[in-house]
Amino acid sequence: MLGVINIFVPKPEEVFVTDMHLMEHCVVEKIEKRFKKIEIENLGIVINAETFLDGFGVELLFSNLELESVLLEQALNNVCFTQHDIQMIQKNKSIITSELSNIDINEEEISLYTPLLKSTKLSIMDLYEASFSELEIGFVDLFNELWDNKSLTCSSNGLITKHHNNKLNTLNNDYNLCTGIFYTGCINYNILTVEEYIYLNFYSFILGKSSESIIDQLYLNENDLYLGYTHDVIINDSYHVLFLMEQGDYTVSQTNIINVDFINTMTEKQFRKQKNAFKTYFLLNNDARKINEDFSKLTNMPSEIKYKELIKQIDFLEQNRLVVLLSRLLKEIKC
After folding, report:
1. How far is CA 73 from the centre of its chain?
2. 313 membership: H or E segment, kind and range
3. What's the confidence (pLDDT) of residue 169?
4. What are residue 219's phi and psi, to 5 degrees?
5. Phi, psi of 201, deg, nearest 5
6. How deeply is 311 buried, as exposed, middle or buried, from its count of CB atoms within 10 A (0-12, 13-18, 19+)?
7. Spelled out in words, what is the top-level CATH class assigned to the domain 174-332?
């Protein structure tokens, strides 16, 4: 059995993405030093970390589940920056500047994330902008303040537990459509319950991941096109379903993307087929580790949930409840 701890540190509006990237490097280095100090560095703990537009996450993986309390009480709670860390901060600034000299993003990826600029005011290219705030000693205070605002979730023995809950400003539901080489857009929803989390995952699957997706049936197949899919991200406490399609001789409307009629007219057999396929997809791509990461970014998720109970909810997905959610989305859209 694998134990997982996810820490997520949200980015305030006035802080650069690169500042968060810098803090991510420094936090990992501080955690590794703490592991050595309390002599647990040889116990097979794996550290993963990643910065995105809305902050950064650190993931700790361990096979000895008894380590969870040690990590929470003696390692993570003792991360604190002081004036003695300025040299470490400067060193990591140089490392990041070198990293960002190689841009590894293509035009398709840029197009996919472009709609986030409207709903979040964040650009995917911010990840590649090697600009830091004009802070020196100030980074110490900033990093301590940001670390205090982290959220933390744990997963072990199939139980996902929230220990800290970061407070973020939520966004209004939004829809955006961009044209260029690709048609791209975003469905944005502030999730309040686990049920909404499951249903929005399900609709993203029907829209652009299923072998009989809405994007395939309404746009790609009849135009002999291939490329079209959805991609889900959680930013600023809001669930975003991004979509991308090859541009063709067709137009895209919001009622075809948030397609109440498509769901309404599905037969019971068709809905059951989509639901069964979604369950397989969800189990393949959303293990307890992934759910743990998602819930660390969502303020309104419960303090505890069993992974098996969450999976059971898929069996009880109802066609009419999905229609209600999509109808609510259409009403709340700001074009």
Report:
1. 26
2. helix 307-315
3. 34
4. -125, -55
5. -60, -45
6. middle
7. alpha beta
| CB-count exposure of residue 269 (10 Å: 0-12, 13-18, 19+) | exposed
Q: What angle do CA 12, 31, 235 make, to 5 degrees?
A: 30
Domains of the chain, by residue range, sit at: 3-164, 174-332
Please report, as a single letter, which amino acid is at residue 82. Answer: T
* Token representation of residue 211: 């072998």
In degrees and rounded to multiples of 5, residue 122 shows phi and psi of -115, 135
Question: Which range (202-206, 239-243, 245-249) has the least confidence?
Answer: 245-249
DSSP 12: P
Check for a shared fold between 3-164 and 174-332.
yes
> For the stretch 144-180, what's the b/e string if a residue is b when 16 or more beta carbons lie within 10 angstroms of its beta carbon?
eebbeebbbbbbbeeebbbeebbebeebebbbbbeee
Cα–Cα distance between 255 and 116 in angstroms, integer? 20
Comparing 159 with 81, the larger pLDDT belongs to 81
Q: Is 97 helix (H, G, I), strand (E, B) or coil?
A: helix
How far is the C-alpha of 291 from the C-alpha of 288, rounded, in Å?
5
Q: Is the pLDDT of residue 176 over 60?
A: no
Q: Which CATH architecture has domain 3-164?
A: 2-Layer Sandwich (3.30)
| Cβ atoms 198, 317 nearer than 8 A | yes
Taking the C-alpha atoms of residue 326 and residue 203, their distance in angstroms, rounded to an integer, is 9
The pTM (predicted TM-score) of the whole model is 0.82
**Under 8 Å between Cβ of 257 and 241:** no
